[in-house]
Amino acid sequence: PSPALILHKTSHLHNQTPAHTRTHAHIYTIPLSKDQTGNLNSSRPPTDQPTHIQKHSLVSAPPFELMAVLSNQFTFSIGKMGSQDASETPALATNPDFIFFTDFDGTITLEDSNDFLTDNVGYGFENRRAGNLLVLEGKKHFRDSFREMMDSVSMPFDRCVDYLKANVKLDPAFKDFYAWCRARNVPVVIISGGMRPIIRALLVQWLGEAEVDGHIQIVSNEVAPREGKASINEEGGWRIVYHDDSVHGHDKSIELRKYSSLPTRPVMFYAGDGVSDLSAARETDLLFAKRDKDLVAYCEKEGISFVTFNDFSDIHETVKQIVEGKISVKDAARGRIH
Prior knowledge:
The protein is α/β, with parallel strands linked by helices. It folds into 2 domains: 2-84, no CATH class; 92-334, HAD superfamily/HAD-like (Rossmann fold, 3-Layer(aba) Sandwich). Helices cover 34% and strands 25% of the residues. It has 12 helices and 14 strands. It has helices at residues 63-71, 113-121, 125-136, 142-151, 157-167, 174-183, 196-207, 209-215, 252-260, 294-302, 312-323, 329-334; strands spanning 2-15, 17-29, 32-34, 40-42, 54-55, 59-61, 74-78, 98-102, 188-195, 217-225, 238-241, 267-272, 286-290, 307-309. Strand 3 and strand 4 (40-42) form a beta hairpin. Helix 7 (196-207) crosses helix 8 (209-215). 32% of the residues are buried. One of its GO terms (molecular function) is phosphatase activity. Keywords: Hydrolase. InterPro entries: HAD-like_hydrolase_phosphatase (IPR050849), HAD-like_sf (IPR036412), HAD_hydro_PyrdxlP_Pase-like (IPR006384), HAD_sf (IPR023214). This is Pdp3-interacting factor 1.
């Protein structure tokens, strides 16, 4: 076996169950010699990064088998390791070079499902819009404004889902974009300030259950019975359960930082349209903001770079050019799509 030092290890492959977790170890070799006690020593400390260091192919195996796999190939000692819990970054499972994060309501859909419920069976457009403006002006937290919106809807939850399935439409260009991403190993991760059961129901209607449950990660808020109610499917029976304790209810930047904080990571795209996307606006390599929506106004006010889009055909073209190496992220960020 070749003498070796493991200088760096990452562990990030995960597929729902511990039995399917796989650990990746980057193996570097440098000449080792035995000292007078018979121990292996390197001629120079590994942190000096000697010019004769060699990087070998990535070794991959379930964690409990990794050491056995390595011992068959190398004599080694283990230095300080850095790791990322694979369950925290499932979009890395296929080792992508790019990840596409996106809002759901009003971005993938033509209508915002939560706005649609509030405007039509809740306290109405004027009250909702007044709350949104207070959030944009920094006078109210999104968490409080959105809870007021959802609390104004007393329709049983199963009826809400059916109502939205009959009225909310998918961006016509999204299916082609999603299929293109799947074919090119660009994971699509939905990070939403809405409610997961509604998002899943709508996606299943458009893309199919196997596709949604097998290939699309949804990070969102949940729904639970209201106190004193036996079921979410009775009048006034449900309430929103926020993803975290932040002022946003769901601070999307927290999810994005799990990826952006990694020492080596894929290029990160994010698409959004409204006030729930404010926390995500600074946490991506390229931000797509829907034309004439609240996110554009916020980014202009805060001096955050973004690219406008009308629909997913605009996003598709830009992402395709970047993935194919025709333009850089920096080039794309210099101008807007018109």
